Amino acid sequence: MSLSLTQKRTFKMENKQKHRCSWANTDDKLMQQYHDEQWGKPIYDDQEMFELLSLELMHSGLSWKTVLHKQTNFEKAFHNFDYHQVAQMEPEIADLLNNAGIIRNNRKINAIITNAKVIEKLHEQGSSFSELMWNFVAHKPIINSINNHNDIPSTTPLATTISKKLKSIGFSFTGPVVVYSFMQSCGMVNDHENNCFAK
């Protein structure tokens, strides 16, 4: 007896839901939650996108697990990533560098403050960070065919183009690798493995 189309779809979904991307096959609940609920999901809110960009630049040279487990501390230290408040945080840099709950890197901290100022400027010009970024993909996520997470490049020509644009308008610490990781995290790119339930 053959399965109906509906039964085949149900069977396929039930089996897909048993699989996460290989990098999320871990006992770490925060990593699982991030993979299941956020990574690759489109985000359009400027404040949320600013937070992800900030976390991704902090991620540079470090493991994502390290950054993710400090996210709550980052949110407290950076006023929940309200870019209006962060843009005024230069007097707080010394305190941030003494905050053991975050990654105390002077260059990265300064970059977050600088980027907040640029996002404010975009708004003053009648635009937004979200509009700027999503225009690069025509407001539609790029869905890649990924069989193994190890096959995902660290960056792409598009990420390099975006990086150059961001730097030209004043963004800091936004090299092609950081930009591509950010594109993945905010859903501009979906790099979930093909057999992952979150694809």
Main traits of this protein?
2% strand; single chain; 199 residues; globular; two-stranded parallel sheet; Endonuclease III, domain 1; mainly alpha
Structural class: mainly alpha
CATH third-tier fold name = Endonuclease III, domain 1
User: What is the global morphology?
Assistant: globular
CATH architecture: Orthogonal Bundle
Please report the first level of CATH classification, the CATH class. Mainly Alpha
Spatially, the strands of the biggest sheet line up as: 1-2
What is the helical fraction, as a range of percent? 40-55%
Distance between the termini: 30 Å
Sheet of most strands? 2 strands, parallel
Mean pLDDT figure: 93
How would you explain this protein's 3D organization?
With 199 residues, this protein is mostly helical. The protein has one domain: Endonuclease III, domain 1 (Orthogonal Bundle), CATH 1.10.340. It contains 11 helices and 2 strands. Strands 1-2 form a two-stranded parallel sheet. The longest helix is centred in the middle third of the chain and has 19 residues. The two termini are 30 Å apart. About 5% of the residues have low confidence. InterPro entries: Adenine_glyco, DNA-3mA_glycosylase, DNA_glycosylase. Keywords: Metal-binding, Zinc. It holds the Pfam family Adenine_glyco. It comes from Fructilactobacillus sanfranciscensis (strain TMW 1.1304) (Lactobacillus sanfranciscensis). One of its GO terms (molecular function) is DNA-3-methyladenine glycosylase activity.
